[in-house]
Amino acid sequence: MEKKFVSVVVYLNNCGAEIEKFLSAVIPTVQNYFENYELVCVDDACTDNTIDLVREYTKKNNTTGMVSVVHMGKYQGLEPSMNAGRDVAIGDFVYEFDTTVCDYEPGVITNVYEALVEGYDIVSAYPSSGSKLFSKLFYGIYNRSNRGRAKIGTETFRLISRRAINRIKSMGDYIPYRKAVYANCGLESKRIPYTETDKNKTGRKTHQRVTLAMDSFIYFTNFLERISTVISVFFLLATVAFVSYAVYDYLVNKAAIEGWTSIICFMSFGFFGVFLMLTIVLKYMSAMLNMVFKRQKYLVSSIEKVGNDR
Prior knowledge:
This protein is of the alpha/beta class and 310 residues long. Helix content is 51%, strand content 18%. The protein folds into two domains: 2-221 and 295-306, Alpha-Beta Complex (Spore Coat Polysaccharide Biosynthesis Protein SpsA, Chain A), CATH 3.90.550; 223-291.
């Protein structure tokens, strides 16, 4: 058995229908492979029986590792909640499960660890069948406009070393999108594909995905800057075209409509100025975000020890 201490951090938000299957797949695998481990469940304001099922599972199966439940003070979403769970974890290596949907064989969990000890600090597992349309669109735009060189894609769970955790904490207290920060922290990473065992799985809630996508574009890409620049160039060209047409109409046709040309030119030039200023503001905000992250923003209500507390 491996002597390294590992932490298993899992995000919970009304997933009572899936939690028992998840625990039955993950906990025995980790328990049989590592001498010491802990389970950190992050309760992001669950309103169903998810936490009760966690308590029942640990008692019924006599879980040997430490089990903690981090109760968030209110609903805060995936990223802040998982940041809280990772900060509580004490393992040499930390598994991060963003979802309890278990569409992989348990052996994939140990395969990720075996890949990491070969010389990587971050190893993730992803389905070999590929991403859904929304994910493909998001990652395509993100990777094209990403300020860093590292590319990201769909991930089901990942394993990170303590060195990687220390590295990203030194980059800033606030981690708005862990996947992007891990990819750009400068440490070696690897992605491992697996064959899905459940093709009908349900993904993350739509509002979480949209919110995370928008935040990621603001923090880690120049996508909005590019859009603003393209619109500014469009209105600049429109202004030049209208002015050229007005001059041609006045000199050749002698039929310029009084007031119309000046209004159109003024509006085109005005829109150009607005979007030019927006581009400058976005560039300035981007520079500020690159210099410093905000302070970590999550609120923990309490940490509950469940089952074995040795």
